Amino acid sequence: MDAGHYVPVKGGSFLRFHEWNVNGECKRCNGFDEFHLIGYRKHLIMKLGKDAVEWLESHRHEVKKWTRTELNELITKYKTNGKQTTNRKNPDLPF
């Protein structure tokens, strides 16, 4: 399984590590199926809600320069909470 991004991430994309944008995908869909985003979007709306998907789409061109500290914090977070998944419908999450 690959870490598939709904909004493609190139260079210093703000969405590279955003939990809403990264989801498990099979290698074939992630690497070779240019039309898989149609189904990806549909299922992402069911998972996160239309507002969250539109938010991702509206932030597709934002750039972020990640610091070493930020990256280390992300590594620690996901090593600690790796089994937990983010769900847009969770009221504790900011949006």
Describe the structure.
- It is a single chain.
- The protein is mainly alpha-helical.
- It has one domain.
- The protein contains 4 helices and 2 strands; from the N terminus they run ββαααα.
- A two-stranded antiparallel sheet has the order 1-2.
- α2 crosses α3.
- The radius of gyration is 14 Å and the shape is globular.
- It starts with a strand and ends in a 15-residue tail after the last helix.
- The relative contact order is 0.19.
- The C terminus is likely disordered.
Question: Which terms would index this structure?
Answer:
mainly alpha, 2 strands, 95 residues
Round the mean pLDDT to the nearest integer and report it.
81
Question: Level of helix content?
Answer: 40-55%
Q: Terminal Cα separation, in Å?
A: 28 Å
Summarize the main sheet: 2 strands, antiparallel
> How would you sum up the global shape?
globular
Could you give a quick summary of the protein structure above?
This protein is mostly helical. The protein has helices spanning 27-32, 36-48, 50-58, 68-80; strands spanning 2-5, 22-25. Strands 1-2 form a two-stranded antiparallel sheet.
Q: What layout of secondary structure does this protein have?
A:
Layout: E1 2-5, E2 22-25, H1 27-32, H2 36-48, H3 50-58, H4 68-80
Antiparallel strand pairs: 1-2
